[in-house]
Amino acid sequence: MFDVAVIEDPAAAEVSLDPVRARLLAELAEPSSATMLAAKVGLARQKVNYHLRALERHGLVELVEERRKGNVTERLMRATAASYVISPAALAPVQPDPARSPDQLSARWLLAVAARLVREVGALITGAAKANKRLATYAIDANIRFASAADRAAFAQELTTAITRLVSKYHDEAAAEGRDHRVIVALHPSPSASPDTERRA
Fold first, then answer.
1. Would you state the pLDDT for residue 68?
2. Which of 20, 58, 63, 123 has its CA 20 to 30 A from that of 175?
């Protein structure tokens, strides 16, 4: 079982968004049978089996074990991941494109960049899993409290200067064996911030 799996197929995304199936996926963090699940979610076993088959068709659950009980074969299923992220690729015709309106100060542009990040890293994870290789990535996640909007602007300027300097230092266009990497740095208000705090900033 993966910690996180990226759903790129539109049909798989549709299946996962069904409330009953999403609940079953959560319950299947540990192997379970349709009979066991039926008691937990309050549905008939046949109905649970119907949903499990749909999830299995799209690779969201997998067979762990089959047990013979009298004339019945009990199938123990498990989710293929502990959690799932739906890639914007599942909505290919309308997925966000940062190139449409590149504005560093736009929250919607930041969202488009984040969507591209999910799409690209999701595709890389899928490819690495198929090749049985480890994917080398790096991320920083930090919180910062600014005393004023001026401090926030100064921080953004210093950060831009530092990142630009590092990119210029290490970027080697002529490296024959080199591999391109994308660097994304984002700054946004914490969702826990109150509206009053936002107005003061």
1. 84
2. 123
Confidence bin at 151 (pLDDT 50/70/90):
very high
Report d(CA 145, CA 41) in Å as an integer.
43
Give SS3 for 181.
Answer: coil
State the CB neighbour count (10 A cutoff) for residue 129.
Answer: 13
Residue range 85-104: average pLDDT?
Answer: 88
Question: CA-to-CA distance for 144 and 163, rounded, in angstroms?
Answer: 18
Question: Residue 86 half-sphere exposure, CB side, CA atoms within 13 Å?
Answer: 14
Task: Give per-residue pLDDT as tens, 52-89.
Answer: 999 999 999 999 999 887 788 889 999 999 999 999 98
Dig out the tokens for 169 from the structure: 């230092």
Q: How far apart are CA 7 and CA 15, in angstroms?
A: 10
Going from the N-terminus, what domains does the chain have, and what CATH number goes with each?
Answer: 2-84 (1.10.10.10), 92-200 (no CATH)
Range 43-49 average pLDDT:
95
- Give dist(CA 158, CA 127) in Å, integer: 36
> Residue 156: exposed, middle, or buried by beta-carbon count in 10 A (0-12, 13-18, 19+)?
middle
